[in-house]
Amino acid sequence: MSKKALIVGLGIAGMATAIALKKKGWEPMIIERAAERRTGGYFIGLQGAGKEAAAKLGVLPDIHVRTPMESRNWDLLDDGSRIRVAGFADQLTKPAVLLRGDIEEGLWINIEKQQIEVRYNLIPTAIQDLGEKVNVTFKHASDDASFDEQFDLVVGCDGLRSTVRKLAFGPHEQYIQYMGSMICAYQLKKSIKNFVEHDGIMSVQPEKSLWIFPLADHPNTALFAYRCKDPDSQFKQKPSETLKALYADMPNQEIVQQALEDLETSKDYLFDSVNTVNMERWSKGRVVLVGDAAWCLTLYSGMGAGTAIDGGYELAEAISAHEDISIALEKWEKKMRPLIRKHRLLVPLKAQVFCPANPTVSLLRRLVLRIGGRQIVRINR
Description:
Layout: E1 4-8, H1 12-23, E2 27-32, E3 43-46, H2 49-57, E4 73-76, E5 82-85, E6 96-99, H3 100-113, E7 117-120, E8 122-129, E9 134-140, E10 146-151, E11 153-156, H4 163-168, E12 176-187, E13 200-205, E14 208-213, E15 221-227, H5 239-246, H6 253-264, E16 269-277, E17 283-284, E18 287-289, H7 292-295, H8 304-321, H9 325-354, H10 359-380
Parallel strand pairs: 1-2, 1-11, 2-7, 4-13, 11-18
Antiparallel strand pairs: 3-6, 4-5, 8-9, 9-10, 12-15, 12-16, 13-14, 14-15, 17-18
């Protein structure tokens, strides 16, 4: 009889983990608190271990990549003049540029191919590890009806504010660390005026910035990032109103206002505080966390999607190699820790690139990106 795994969360980590376990002979079931699957999403990159894991998992051919073949990136000065600089896709790792929804769509194709069960409108309300099994109590999101089911493994892939983590490991406050800034990411509806369609734009000041990321066959995406001491205070009104007030004194107002116009009518955006998750252990008995629920590296890292896929793939590999679940989870975590540790150390530095903390850092950031831009121009000549 196949072993049963409960996957909580129909995101990148959840689908990747389910596909990987299915290929190893398990019977995964995914639950999602929402009424339907998400589509769309903001700009992300897929690189290194993430691309390799997607290839090993067999899903890479189904992921639509939107890396622009010909794209320039501009850093705007206060007077509106432009400096050619290196952009996200110009990194030495050559990340694939795409939308979050592109990866989720590629994974979903394989969820359907593998005929993996997905249930919507379900929330776990209690998790009890019985030793050989895990008993999970569920509640329907639309009413108070509840029921119990037992599984051989429970995998929490339900994001930064993971319900599984809260039920099995303790309150969010024990693990979530605020990184001192807020972000708002979403898709634009049209190109920025006076710029080539697939050019990237950076308007960066000390403590606040606006980034326009280019895509090959899709309208660009926007990212507002700003430093903030009190994140709870930022949710008292609509994101567009909050950003209008904060960015009213930002240079290059024409670009800022055009981006904010698209935010006002956007139905799919991310507006949140930037947090990382720090845990001494990612597993407890037969309950394990994968992706943001376990190690959230933040949007600044550019590694969230990649480590989510890699984490799910490596988890299934470890479980397949070791019959004892406790040994398998220990081996899996030992293999994943160095990768997560390396990228976690880079997050504070990358945060300064996206949203510099002071004028000195802002100047250094501009100089580094300008040197990178000159190298790109030489290569293209």
